[in-house]
Design brief:
484 residues; Sodium/glucose cotransporter; globular
Length: 484
């Protein structure tokens, strides 16, 4: 932790004004609401055009983990982690598997959550509850990792003036206030601002690093001196790890419930199609610069531990504080990091509240009015945020490890969505057995003395293999039984 605050007095005031503006947007979202209904509150009335839809998808996908977790992994893995760019492209590829067919269904049948689609497609309340439970677990984990990230950032940039705990609590209050004021409208509108901040911040910081630290080529001598392992040959183990993570991300992040809600929120198919097209190029403009920055940082700040590596960008900027104008750049980075985190946490919180309200509370209280349902959802947002703040403060773990645990469980719902949207003959029991089998195998490797990465693959990938296998076998035997 730095003993000197990275943010100047002007930077602190900028941050205060930025956070205040988010509260104002929350009120704007509330006043723009047309009715007190689940559709209006959680989908923004399904009226998002290309601009807002693209920026809210971009800001949500590029979380605080992009600036901290990804940068830390790039620092530790060197140039090999350039494959991280393909990870982010894989997410958009995952969307394209199901989004074009899911969107018109959501319009026709009024879907609010992923649980609505599962219940409609398979007509199984048991399967719906399981999918919803896995989704809430993964989203809670998502909130937890990003709240931890915001605590680290606030503590570091203020030189300890704002502690890890205080930073998490303060930012959590801001987020839950504007989210419960205006719902998806407030979240999407704040995402638009946060997306712009993130993109501009990354480009400016990349330019500053290139000017003051030099390019990858310019640092080649320093790499050989301080970090010779950066140039080691890629091993079979490295390739298996890359493939394993790629599978996790392709089948995991692309089915995040908050991403599916944004698909539902599109104004029309054209807006959705154009937004996804823009998302394809963003890894080259966001992920790639961040990875290059972290790799260059490994030459100038060698031998950092995991916690230190996740602060590599801040360390690099801190070294340049004597340069004129750097206070503005640091302020932009802090604002971009906070924006990325907030856009992720508020989206996850909104999705959790809608899943609980629509797929659990509403099913047990079918006569509840739309006004009542919206009120319950808001209360649950405060509850889940409080719980996640407590856990974020007290649970120790690295951000990247938490991301992987979350994805290893979440990938088990991908077959239900991706196969279900294309294979009309697929029955609920096939999917149910697949989810249960995949989840059981995953937890077996994660929670027992067995290796968490059998044959070099993540437990979730092995679980997903068994998931698909169980679906195939049950589907095949069921069709044979019907034929006989």
């Amino acid at each position: 932790m730095s003993e000197t605050a990275l943010l100047s007095e002007g930077g602190i005031w900028f941050l205060v004004l930025y956070l205040a503006s988010l509260i104002l947007i929350g009120f704007a979202g509330k006043f723009a609401s047309k009715e007190e209904s689940m559709k209006d509150f959680y989908l923004g009335g399904q009226g998002f055009g290309v601009g807002v839809l693209f920026l809210t998808m971009y800001a949500t996908q590029y979380s605080g983990n992009s600036l901290i977790g990804f940068a830390g992994s790039a620092y530790r893995n060197g140039w090999f982690f350039l494959v991280g760019v393909t990870f982010m492209i894989a997410i958009v590829a995952g969307y394209l598997i199901y989004a074009p067919k899911l969107y018109p269904l959501s319009k026709k049948h009024g879907f609010i959550t992923v649980g609505d689609y599962i219940n409609f497609r398979y007509n199984s309340q048991t399967l719906t509850y399981i999918i919803v439970a896995i989704s809430i677990f993964a989203l809670s984990n998502y909130m937890l990792t990003n709240l931890k990230a915001i605590g680290y950032i606030m503590e570091y940039v203020t030189g300890g003036g704002i502690g890890f705990t205080e930073g998490i609590i303060f930012m959590a209050i801001v987020m839950v206030v504007y989210e419960t004021l205006g719902g998806m409208r407030s979240v999407a509108w704040t995402d638009a601002i946060q997306g712009v901040l993130l993109f501009v911040g990354v480009i400016i910081i990349f330019s500053v690093v290139m000017i003051h630290y030099g390019s990858l080529e310019a640092n080649s001598t320093l790499f050989l001196q301080n970090n010779p392992e950066l140039f080691k040959a890629v091993t079979l183990s490295d390739q298996i790890t890359w493939l394993s993570v790629l599978i996790l991300i392709f089948f995991g992040i692309s089915v995040y419930p908050q991403a599916i809600q944004r698909i539902y929120s599109a104004k029309n198919e054209s807006s959705l199609r154009h937004s996804l097209s823009l998302m394809v190029i963003m890894p080259l403009l966001t992920t790639l610069p961040l990875i290059i920055i972290a790799i260059i940082g490994s030459a100038h700040f060698p031998n950092l531990d995991k916690a230190g590596s996740e602060q590599i960008i801040l360390l690099m900027l801190n070294k340049l504080t004597n340069i004129e104008g750097m206070s503005i750049v640091i302020t932009l980075f802090v604002a971009a990091a906070i924006a990325a985190i907030m856009s992720t946490v508020d989206s996850a919180m909104l999705a959790i509240a809608s899943l609980f309200t629509q797929d659990i509370y509403h099913k047990r209280n079918p006569n509840a009015s739309q006004k009542r349902l919206t009120y319950v959802g808001k209360l649950f947002s405060w509850f889940i945020m409080t719980l996640m703040v407590i856990l974020a403060i007290n649970l120790p773990s690295t951000i990247w490890w938490l991301i992987q645990i979350k994805l290893e469980i979440l990938v088990q719902i991908a077959p239900a969505i991706m196969l279900g949207i294309h294979l009309k003959s697929l029955k609920s029991k096939s999917i149910l057995y697949g989810v249960l089998c995949g989840s059981a195998v995953t937890l077996l490797f994660l929670l027992t003395p067995l290796p968490s990465k059998p044959f070099g693959f993540h437990a979730g990938v092995i679980g997903l293999l068994f998931n698909f296998l169980a679906i195939y076998l049950h589907h095949k035997f069921h069709k044979r039984a019907e034929h006989e």
